[in-house]
Amino acid sequence: MTELDITGLFAALDIVVMEHIGDGSIQVIGTIPDWFRQLYPNVDMEIGRLRLEEEFSFFELFLDEAEDFWMKNETGRLTSEVWTETDSSGNECTLEALAVCFRGKNILLIESLGASFKKRHAFFQKAKETLLDKEVLEQMIIERTANLRNTMEDLRKALDAIVHVLALTVEVRDPYTAGHQRRVANLARAIATEMGLLEEVAESIYMGGVIHDLGKISVPVELLSKPSRLSENEFNLIKDHPQVGYNILKNIKFPWDIARMVLQHHEKMDGSGYPQGLSGEDIFLEARILTIADIVEAMASHRPYRPALGIDKALEEISINKGKFYDTEAANACLRVFKDKEFEFK
């Protein structure tokens, strides 16, 4: 299994991750990117610490808010506005910051959005382990790896842990995605079982469902929770997320082709889907199942721009468009799961 280089990943993604220390200072975790050094040359880069009283303009103001947030032991997260600062060479840098209490630690992230703020660069699509500091994630991987005994059960448990960590990277940024991926995964597994697919295949579809929206880590937070309809350009940014998720997962050696499931989960049987415009049997069966589960859950649930349409409306959509947009066998299995097996989202 590919081992993630967390320090290198943070630097490559132009993210600085810091922990608020009891003495009032901020401890930088991992590599400090060049843009951060240029913006804040007075920070002691050798020991990786900075103090709240340093002059950091808007950043200083957000640090003050974050300190209040941590002192109150708030749940959830505190997100800054996007702002722009100019470094000593006159280069502008667009930034966004986030504060969160995670497992007893006060974590602060600051990200350079760069020139790709409105159209993300392909390399930016690496997994952001935003809430887990380097030591916690590395220890989890080491412990999982040490306990493997070349049995399928041990492998499944390790993969399950990693998949859910990846899912967390999306859900922490988007409250409407939190729970959506899990519900899609449960329905997709139920559909696969109803179709008579092997248990291992059904389990692989569940795994793919849990992280099918992983690529949304590339989408600006304000678009994920926008309370009105997206513009064409904004929707085009959203439409990049299957490719982004694929880019993140393609080099991780899962025993199933989860990367292809994620890439194709918005394809349609008539070729009208995205990102590749595939049609019919060219679409991975597992992805065809995920597509149906994703549509049903999305329509049945509340979204920032509309109330829930309800499960009856969602099943009507599947029934009307099976064979056109949706795989007929998978669509029929979905309808039976609800009508005969009384499946419910939990």
Structural class of the secondary elements? alpha+beta
Overall geometry comes to: elongated
CATH topology of the largest domain: Hypothetical protein af1432
CATH superfamily of the largest domain: Hypothetical protein af1432
Computed Rg? 22 Å
Helicity, as a percent range: 40-55%
CATH class placement of the largest domain: Mainly Alpha
Features:
346 residues; single chain; alpha+beta; 14 helices; Hypothetical protein af1432; Beta-Lactamase; 7-stranded antiparallel sheet; 12% strand; 2 domains; elongated
Give a structural overview.
The chain is α+β, with helices and mostly antiparallel strands and 346 residues long. The protein has two domains: 6-125, Beta-Lactamase, CATH 3.30.450; 172-339, Hypothetical protein af1432 (Orthogonal Bundle), CATH 1.10.3210.10. The chain has helices at 6-12, 34-39, 57-71, 134-147, 152-171, 180-194, 199-210, 221-224, 232-238, 241-249, 258-264, 285-300, 311-321, 328-339; strands at residues 15-20, 25-29, 49-51, 77-79, 83-86, 92-102, 105-112. Strands 1, 2, 3, 4, 5, 6 and 7 form a seven-stranded antiparallel beta sheet that branches. Residues 121-133 have low confidence and may be disordered.
Please provide a brief summary of the model.
The protein has 346 residues and is α+β, with helices and mostly antiparallel strands.
Per-chain topology:
Blueprint (H helix, E strand, L loop, with lengths): L5 H7 L2 E6 L4 E5 L4 H6 L9 E3 L5 H15 L5 E3 L3 E4 L5 E11 L2 E8 L21 H14 L4 H20 L8 H15 L4 H12 L10 H4 L7 H7 L2 H9 L8 H7 L20 H16 L10 H11 L6 H12 L7
Helix pairs in contact: 4-5, 6-7, 6-12, 6-14, 7-11, 7-12, 10-11, 11-12, 12-13
